[in-house]
């Protein structure tokens, strides 16, 4: 059995095993199995040829009557996201060790991991759609069953938004299937089609809306702040750290190469929406008192810049988007974890009720500073090279787009430093008076996240080289 298939099979087996466990031992087994998944990813990194195109392909006939194939493969765009998925899952599981979660919670996480990996590997549109839907179902139940506040109403809105977007994408996929002479769902068959301008116009919107909801891009973002805020910490990490990357990946894998004329016609409008989202979400983030909601809006701003990089359709923008998807995932996991630690110790997320934590927990304050600097994009942190390439790509696309897109650096620094100041600095409050510093598993997780932020910031070439060849190929579709 090929290892590429094992990457998906192992989380499915893990989900079955974990679903049967009713004791606290489930979290330890879930962590071990997630580390095994990460270990299985390493050989692909070692054997991958950055200039080799699509690699490790495996193609099995699935539903012969409809010419549906279980076709998998990876290139320099998908491999970083596979690494992101399998790399972040152990961190997310480790952050839950202080919670009283049983096997069913971790089973849903493993099932979602399988769906995410299928999305990032699928070279058959039907298989891609199956993975897209598989990833949605478990996160809905994670947020609905273990969330807080008005979680049922909030998650119903999230489900309806994403399901309607998926339905539009399915209509587009089925139409393309009918146009392929051999009637199959192969990615190569879709990109080889000679589609008319009018056809590409409506197909652009069918795919774009589905991906824009998942990312989310303004104005399709309204489900996100409440969902992130009311979800359990692990659920928020899954949504912000990994799941939203499905939408950006969809833009790069399916939208740009399949309907290039549609992107040429409407790409500037999509770019404007991305830039509006950056400024709008950043301003709202500055005004937030709920720390978790602040990070939720900041995520909209960050992924707005990543999406803008995709629509520049130049190598700088696409390279920046690819590396920044991974970097954003690492940083946002760290941010939400620190806020979860603060909430567990103080029973509040309100900035007006916090302060002075650094005097009680200096280790946490140092880790939080490193994570915040990575999120802001300070030089020598992981966020710098990605944001630099993104802004360079946007500048190549248009000067004024870069001017407004660049506001993310200024506004991002404002709300991030405000978050740090109002939680870590100043006088202690009644809630933070007896705050305990991080220790044990918390110390290990935050140390590893901080190490990754600094290591990638100082040595980014590995990630840049990983995607260079595939980005170069993708950029050629513009002139097709």
TrEMBL record:
- Compartment(s) where it occurs, according to its Swiss-Prot or TrEMBL record: Endomembrane system; Membrane
The record gives the membrane topology as: Multi-pass membrane protein
GO CC aspect terms: endomembrane system; membrane
One GO-annotated biological process of the protein: ATP synthesis coupled electron transport
The molecular function terms in GO held by this entry are: NADH dehydrogenase (ubiquinone) activity; NADH dehydrogenase activity; ubiquinone binding
**Key word Transmembrane present in the record?**
yes
InterPro entries on file: NADH_Q_OxRdtase_chainM/4, NADH_UbQ_OxRdtase, ND/Mrp_TM
Q: A Pfam family in this protein? A: Proton_antipo_M
Q: Does the keyword Nucleus apply?
A: no
Residues passing through the membrane, by range: 29-48, 105-123, 129-146, 158-177, 202-220, 232-251, 263-282, 294-313, 325-343, 364-385, 397-417, 443-464
Domain of life, source organism:
Bacteria
Question: Keywords of this protein's UniProt record, alphabetized?
Answer: Membrane, Transmembrane, Transmembrane helix
Please give the chief subcellular localization of this protein.
membrane
Q: Where is the NADH:quinone oxidoreductase/Mrp antiporter transmembrane domain?
A: 123-407
Q: Which PANTHER family match?
A: NADH-UBIQUINONE OXIDOREDUCTASE CHAIN 4
The protein's name is: NADH-quinone oxidoreductase subunit M
């Amino acid at each position: 059995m090929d290892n590429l298939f094992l990457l998906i099979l192992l989380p499915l087996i893990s989900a079955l095993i974990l679903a049967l466990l009713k004791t606290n031992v489930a979290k330890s087994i879930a962590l071990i199995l997630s580390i095994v998944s990460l270990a299985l990813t390493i050989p692909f990194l070692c054997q991958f040829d950055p200039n080799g195109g699509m690699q490790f392909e495996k193609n099995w006939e699935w539903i012969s009557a409809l010419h549906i194939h279980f076709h998998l493969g990876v290139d320099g765009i998908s491999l970083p996201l596979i690494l992101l998925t399998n790399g972040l899952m152990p961190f997310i599981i480790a952050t839950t060790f202080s919670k009283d979660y049983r096997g069913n919670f971790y089973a849903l996480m493993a099932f979602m991991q399988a769906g995410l990996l299928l999305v990032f590997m699928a070279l058959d549109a039907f298989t891609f759609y199956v993975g897209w839907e598989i990833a949605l179902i478990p996160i809905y139940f994670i947020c609905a069953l273990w969330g807080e506040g008005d979680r049922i109403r909030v998650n119903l809105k999230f489900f309806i938004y994403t399901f309607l977007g998926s339905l539009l994408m399915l209509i587009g996929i089925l139409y393309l299937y009918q146009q392929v002479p051999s009637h199959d769902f192969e990615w190569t068959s879709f990109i080889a089609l000679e589609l008319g301008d009018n056809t590409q116009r409506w197909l652009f919107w069918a795919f774009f809306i589905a991906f824009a909801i998942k990312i989310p891009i303004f104005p399709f973002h309204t489900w996100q702040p409440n969902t992130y805020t009311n979800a359990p910490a692990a659920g928020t990490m899954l949504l912000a750290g990994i799941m939203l990357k499905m939408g950006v990946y969809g833009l790069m894998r399916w939208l740009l190469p399949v309907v290039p004329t549609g992107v040429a016609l409407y790409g500037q409008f999509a770019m404007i929406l991305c830039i509006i989202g950056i400024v709008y979400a950043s301003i709202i983030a500055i005004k937030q008192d709920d720390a978790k909601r602040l990070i939720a809006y900041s995520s909209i701003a960050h992924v707005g810049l990543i999406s803008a990089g995709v629509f520049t359709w130049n190598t700088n923008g696409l390279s920046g988007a690819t590396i920044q998807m991974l970097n954003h995932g690492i940083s946002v996991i760290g941010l939400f974890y620190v806020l979860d630690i603060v909430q567990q110790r103080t029973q509040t997320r309100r900035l007006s009720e916090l302060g002075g934590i650094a005097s009680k927990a200096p280790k946490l304050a140092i880790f939080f500073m490193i994570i915040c600097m990575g999120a802001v994009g300070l030089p020598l942190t992981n966020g710098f090279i990605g944001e630099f390439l993104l802004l360079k790509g946007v500048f190549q696309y248009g000067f004024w787009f870069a001017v407004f897109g660049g506001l993310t650096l200024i506004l991002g620094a404002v709300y991030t430093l405000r978050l740090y100041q109002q939680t870590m600095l100043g006088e202690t409050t009644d809630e933070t008076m007896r705050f305990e510093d991080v220790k044990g598993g918390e110390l290990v997780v935050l140390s590893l996240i901080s190490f990754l932020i600094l290591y990638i910031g100082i040595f980014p070439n590995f990630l840049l080289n990983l995607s260079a060849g595939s980005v170069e190929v993708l950029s050629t579709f513009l002139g097709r």
